[in-house]
Amino acid sequence: MRIDKFLKVSRLIKRRSVAKEVADKGRIQLNGKIAKSGTTVKVGDELQIQFGNRTVNVRVEKLQESTKKEDASSMYTLLSDERVNA
């Protein structure tokens, strides 16, 4: 599954176009390497996402083409959510 679609389906980012933009600006790392929007995500991969002054680390637990809002958080495990002081 593409990284931008995973972020949208898992509801880490609300819209796929925003997920694509974030990825293409180099603010997402997949297993320690910068990922573009078309990068493939697999179960067990770790993502680091920079949201302004926040950095979120998650591990991919499962991949689904679509999901209900209540079930979206089961697609990943939150490893850390840190604020970056500027």
Automatic annotation (TrEMBL):
Subunit-structure text: Associates with stalled 50S ribosomal subunits. Binds to RqcH, 23S rRNA and the P-site tRNA. Does not require RqcH for association with 50S subunits.
Entry GO MF terms: ribosomal large subunit binding; rRNA binding; tRNA binding
Gene behind the chain: rqcP
Keywords: Protein biosynthesis, RNA-binding, rRNA-binding, tRNA-binding
Domain RNA-binding S4: 1-65
CDD domains hit by this protein: S4 (cd00165)
Protein's name according to its UniProt entry: RQC P-site tRNA stabilizing factor
Described function: Key component of the ribosome quality control system (RQC), a ribosome-associated complex that mediates the extraction of incompletely synthesized nascent chains from stalled ribosomes and their subsequent degradation. RqcH recruits Ala-charged tRNA, and with RqcP directs the elongation of stalled nascent chains on 50S ribosomal subunits, leading to non-templated C-terminal alanine extensions (Ala tail). The Ala tail promotes nascent chain degradation. RqcP is associated with the translocation-like movement of the peptidyl-tRNA from the A-site into the P-site.
Record-linked InterPro entries: RqcP, S4_RNA-bd, S4_RNA-bd_sf
Pfam families, sorted: S4 (PF01479)
Lineage, highest ranks first: Bacteria, Bacillati, Bacillota, Bacilli, Lactobacillales
GO biological process: rescue of stalled ribosome
TM region positions: none
Family: Belongs to the RqcP family.
